[in-house]
């Protein structure tokens, strides 16, 4: 693959126009979209996170970097989702209550679609009742939760408890993921699966749907 480090720089500096231009050029050159994501885009967001952690960046810089990332992903995700794979299951996905981070969740949703899952995206800041309602309407679904904050990850447990209280826990499978989530945490809250990244999330969903 040619060097697309301009995409990395564009995301880190929040230059969404360049991010779009470089992504378009890469896709026209038939570059594998997943490689663009893993080699340039995710490392760029990690760099942004590091700059934020050491007070070099503040929330406005996070926002413009996220805008550049999203603009590039908008070009890429249709390619991840449109693989023509046979339907293999249903997933209801959302970022938990109190949490507005949706880039990773959107990536997971697109990859699941590409793998053949029907995906219902509940968005961000999703309260437990909304997960419960969506699961109630779709028996046998996988409930997939994302969280990026150490504070909001605790809300995943509330969703599992709400599913239990409404008698749905045995009728659905639950998977979790997001930067602060660990396999131990997933097990501790009673989730059925954990994925470290979007590719792993697809493997986990396949296993849960089987
Ligand atoms: Co926020 N933020 N942020 N932020 N932000 C983090 C998460 C942080 C680590 C930055 C830092 O300090 N270094 C930190 C959290 C610290 C902590 O909790 N310990 C943080 C903070 C503190 C905050 C605010 C509190 C800042 C403030 O206001 N003072 C605030 C909270 C707002 C809220 O949610 N209530 C906030 C706000 C924001 C923005 C809105 C500005 C923006 C988000 C924009 C958006 O999403 N639309 C933002 C951003 C961009 C980030 C960083 C820089 C990047 C996140 C990202 O998109 N990564 C982030 C630092 C970092 O992650 N390095 C940071 C790229 C994305 C592809 O990766 O989401 O991890 P990720 O998804 C991965 C995996 O985690 C996994 O697969 C994906 C693909 O590999 N995955 C799953 C995700 N969901 C999954 C579900 C699965 C399976 C796998 O199964 C269901």
From TrEMBL:
<dbReference type="GO" id="GO:0015948">
    <property type="term" value="P:methanogenesis"/>
</dbReference>
<dbReference type="GO" id="GO:0050667">
    <property type="term" value="P:homocysteine metabolic process"/>
</dbReference>
<keyword id="KW-0170">Cobalt</keyword>
<dbReference type="GO" id="GO:0005829">
    <property type="term" value="C:cytosol"/>
</dbReference>
<dbReference type="Pfam" id="PF02310">
    <property type="entry name" value="B12-binding"/>
</dbReference>
<dbReference type="Pfam" id="PF02607">
    <property type="entry name" value="B12-binding_2"/>
</dbReference>
<dbReference type="InterPro" id="IPR036594">
    <property type="entry name" value="Meth_synthase_dom"/>
</dbReference>
<dbReference type="InterPro" id="IPR006158">
    <property type="entry name" value="Cobalamin-bd"/>
</dbReference>
<feature type="domain" description="B12-binding N-terminal">
    <location>
        <begin position="1"/>
        <end position="88"/>
    </location>
</feature>
<protein>
    <submittedName>
        <fullName>Methyltransferase corrinoid protein</fullName>
    </submittedName>
</protein>
<comment type="similarity">
    <text>Belongs to the methylamine corrinoid protein family.</text>
</comment>
<keyword id="KW-0479">Metal-binding</keyword>
<dbReference type="GO" id="GO:0008705">
    <property type="term" value="F:methionine synthase activity"/>
</dbReference>
<dbReference type="InterPro" id="IPR050554">
    <property type="entry name" value="Met_Synthase/Corrinoid"/>
</dbReference>
<dbReference type="InterPro" id="IPR003759">
    <property type="entry name" value="Cbl-bd_cap"/>
</dbReference>
<dbReference type="InterPro" id="IPR012741">
    <property type="entry name" value="Corrinoid_p"/>
</dbReference>
<keyword id="KW-0808">Transferase</keyword>
<dbReference type="GO" id="GO:0032259">
    <property type="term" value="P:methylation"/>
</dbReference>
<dbReference type="InterPro" id="IPR036724">
    <property type="entry name" value="Cobalamin-bd_sf"/>
</dbReference>
<dbReference type="GO" id="GO:0031419">
    <property type="term" value="F:cobalamin binding"/>
</dbReference>
<keyword id="KW-0489">Methyltransferase</keyword>
<dbReference type="GO" id="GO:0046653">
    <property type="term" value="P:tetrahydrofolate metabolic process"/>
</dbReference>
<feature type="domain" description="B12-binding">
    <location>
        <begin position="88"/>
        <end position="210"/>
    </location>
</feature>
<dbReference type="GO" id="GO:0050897">
    <property type="term" value="F:cobalt ion binding"/>
</dbReference>
């Amino acid at each position: 693959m040619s060097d697309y480090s301009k995409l990395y720089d564009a995301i880190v500096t929040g230059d969404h126009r360049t991010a779009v231009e470089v992504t378009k050029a890469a896709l026209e050159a038939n570059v594998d979209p997943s490689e663009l994501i893993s080699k340039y885009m995710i490392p760029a967001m990690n760099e942004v996170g590091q700059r934020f952690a050491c007070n070099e960046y503040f929330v406005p810089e996070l926002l413009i970097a996220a805008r550049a990332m999203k603009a590039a992903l908008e070009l890429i995700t249709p390619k991840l989702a449109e693989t023509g794979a046979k339907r293999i299951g249903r997933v209801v996905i959302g970022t938990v209550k109190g949490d507005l981070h949706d880039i990773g969740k959107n990536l997971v949703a697109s990859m699941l679609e590409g793998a053949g899952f029907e995906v219902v995206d509940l968005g961000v800041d999703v309260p437990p009742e909304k997960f419960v309602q969506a699961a109630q309407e779709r028996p046998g679904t996988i409930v997939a939760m994302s969280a990026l904050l150490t504070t909001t990850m605790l809300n995943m447990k509330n969703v599992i408890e709400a599913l239990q209280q409404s008698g749905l826990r045995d009728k659905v499978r639950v998977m979790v993921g997001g930067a602060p989530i660990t396999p131990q945490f997933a097990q501790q809250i009673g989730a059925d699966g954990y994925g470290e990244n979007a590719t792993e999330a697809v493997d986990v969903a396949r296993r849960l749907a089987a």
